[in-house]
Design a protein that fits this description.
This protein has 178 residues and is α+β, with helices and mostly antiparallel strands. Helix content is 29%, strand content 33%. The two termini are 18 Å apart.
Length: 178
């Protein structure tokens, strides 16, 4: 994967259609907790509702022509220096370095721009690819919420993972990526 083929950017209303397409792919739907299928109208309403929210930052990773992956830092708490993270990637791009690059950009932004010290995220039972990615970046398993969430016909455990950004090893200049 060539990092210079991608652009890390702030999510914009123009990205709504691409976000809907990515969300509605099988691999994404199996791991996220939203009403499905995602629609353009509901996603646009969501995008409008979050645009002025100071407690979140939403991002997109683009190729020249397409938005291919999305991430966000949400529930930002500047007093305590922590927030939650989400990330999802287009079908067919998992395991090819796209998620690693997007995650690195997002974590560097959280550390360098927002001065956050800790990022937490939730992973659904059975999403071993995500667990592997997060552990590669220093996330540690802090707990399990047993039979916590009803998801696609059954209750699943939700794993809580966290990472202290002081341990983030990255030479990435996120401002060159933007």
């Amino acid at each position: 994967m060539q990092k210079n083929n991608y652009k890390f950017d702030i999510f914009k209303l123009d990205d709504v259609e691409s976000r809907v397409n990515v969300i509605n792919s099988y691999s994404v739907l199996s791991g996220i907790f939203i009403e499905v299928p995602a629609t353009y109208e509901k996603t646009k309403a969501w995008a409008n509702s979050i645009s002025a929210n100071p407690n979140r930052r939403d991002f997109v990773l683009r190729t020249k022509n397409n938005a291919i992956a999305f991430s966000g830092i949400v529930n930002i708490d500047l007093k305590h220096g922590n927030a939650e993270l989400y990330i999802f990637i287009s079908d067919g791009l998992q395991g090819k370095g796209v998620g690693s690059y997007l995650l690195e950009c997002t974590l560097k932004y959280a550390k360098d721009e927002l001065n956050l010290r800790k990022i937490t995220l939730y992973v659904s039972e059975g999403n071993e690819g995500a667990v592997k990615l997060y552990e590669k970046f220093g996330f540690i398993h802090e707990g399990t919420l047993s039979d916590h969430s009803w998801h696609r016909g059954k209750y699943l455990d939700r794993y809580i993972y966290s990472c202290f950004l002081e341990h983030l090893q990255s030479d990435l200049d996120v401002y060159r990526a933007i």
